[in-house]
Amino acid sequence: MDDDTQKINMKALAKALNLSTATISKALRDSYDISEATKIKVREAAERLNYVANAYASGLRSHQSNTIAIVIPEIADSFFSQAINGIESVAGNKKYHALIYLTHDSYEREAAILNEFTSGRVDGLLMSVASSTLDTAHIGKLQKAGIPIVFFDRDCRQIPTASVTTDDFNSAYNATCHLIKQGCKNISLITVQGHVSIFLARKDGFRRALEAGGITPLPSNFVYCPNKYSDESIKLIGNHLNEVQPDGLLLTVEHLSTAAYLAAEEVKLSIPNDIKIVCFTNQITAPVLNPSLTTVQQPAFAMGQKAAELLFEYLSHKYIQLEKEHLVLPSMLVVRGSTSPTSDNKKLTQL
Amino acid sequence: MDDDTQKINMKALAKALNLSTATISKALRDSYDISEATKIKVREAAERLNYVANAYASGLRSHQSNTIAIVIPEIADSFFSQAINGIESVAGNKKYHALIYLTHDSYEREAAILNEFTSGRVDGLLMSVASSTLDTAHIGKLQKAGIPIVFFDRDCRQIPTASVTTDDFNSAYNATCHLIKQGCKNISLITVQGHVSIFLARKDGFRRALEAGGITPLPSNFVYCPNKYSDESIKLIGNHLNEVQPDGLLLTVEHLSTAAYLAAEEVKLSIPNDIKIVCFTNQITAPVLNPSLTTVQQPAFAMGQKAAELLFEYLSHKYIQLEKEHLVLPSMLVVRGSTSPTSDNKKLTQL
Which residues does chain A have within 8 Å of residue B115's beta carbon, measured at their own beta carbons? Predict the structure, then answer.
């Protein structure tokens, strides 16, 4: 048992097989110099004898870490957890590790993480940019160091590389048109602070849909909340509901749905009778909220999957030009109770 | 600009400062041989000149990766995302990377991940065991290889090391007593498949509370769902509601709350009039569900924080005996609408 769990090094493996360490090393690296029969023999013995390569030493030799990094703002969001599952569904098959790094939406953290990668810790990067990132030199620097990058969801136009996004402009446009169609006349956008591509696109889509509907949004129709779920968001939205008295809200981030529901409850507004709500979110709880929540549902799993496929295609063949790959997958408006003409309760009362 | 983003190596740093590479290397490793003044000079120049250590080379020299691993079953669960924030609040201060590895509750994945670590990829491990893990040899092997491990939430009694858990037995006991007090007489436990410490403790607490209340649970009062949110869970719970007709449910995992609400809706049972529900979850949506959800709320952030503190204490001083550290932090029952004597709707109808 103890022998079994002992790890052995390349020298011991060479001795056990009566081969040179050079042969063992080449066989394990799948070198053309070594016959298939020898490779099989070496691999079998390596497994049987519990051979473990020193990650650092083998990294130095092969210049490969067999590791990719997923750099995302946060994980307390269904979108990212579903996207990670999509990425892992690909990475797992390729025998790669996918390591998750969280920026907590901070530019400083993102820059520090990417700076680490220039030392060769990872072979490639799947990234969703932090909302506080304006200066993108840290991303450009990593790209110059030869580390391929694929953006997913939140991309960065200044960096010429692949991106997998969803149609944020159209989604916000359609969601806003839906609110107008349901009778809303004073609609506000509740979003988060930051400079991220997706938030700008959603804001644009919102604004253009209002204009198309003959509504001119006022500066007071735009509310900027913190990037994390917090009491401050509930307060900000509550104050907005009191002061601006909107009859419709488009929320751009998952955690704003809970904040908006609690704010509406606090100021005694009924959803959807007094105010209708649509939120960009993939939360599984959307159908069981009070009332059930109309959502813009994003293809999170597929986006992660596609981004990983692009990166691995590049890592394995290098015949694709990453800067020419820009996939845009459609999102879907799922209409539920929070934008109904009348609530179920109201209906019951009317019966 | 280009010069600025160029990385320089130790040799260039030595040349710039007119010092030997040995001195630079020692200064960067904070060696006793080097004066404080020289260390400051070297560090400043390193920063100014954008010196980047080769992760592999420096790892080989110092036998330190400045990296800890967080090995968890999944991230689509508020408990784990909050625990990770707790861990990172400590790791960030210590200038350590905290890398997140997901086992997806699979023993095979967990074993493969831990096997990688024996090669020195990480300095320590914070771990929540997969629900399918029965054989713990992979954990014992890593411990023998000298990598310290601290369990949080889901621990593993066979491995003598530190653990930070919450009082799962008492929490389930109290939640079940609450259901009995609210009038439930036929209470079922909806849980997930697997062998994890916490699920066994919750099952025990549930069973003992029923016995204390003079109720004998039948085998049919125990339902085992998949470990991920799925339509199968909704179906399993729906069938159970039809066949066993329980008037109370204790759910042991977050994603079961959405499944149970949808199942109740499908079989046309009203929560809390026909059936009352308590769930172990930290989901922020609990107060805005229809009806708001009574929860066992766990000290997720604090658990992550404490586990990280223990690991770093060990890594920096080694004067603590990990196997003697077992922290148990209390959870809290938060009573909401899903266990009310009558629902708000009912009240409205009665007025």
Answer: 52
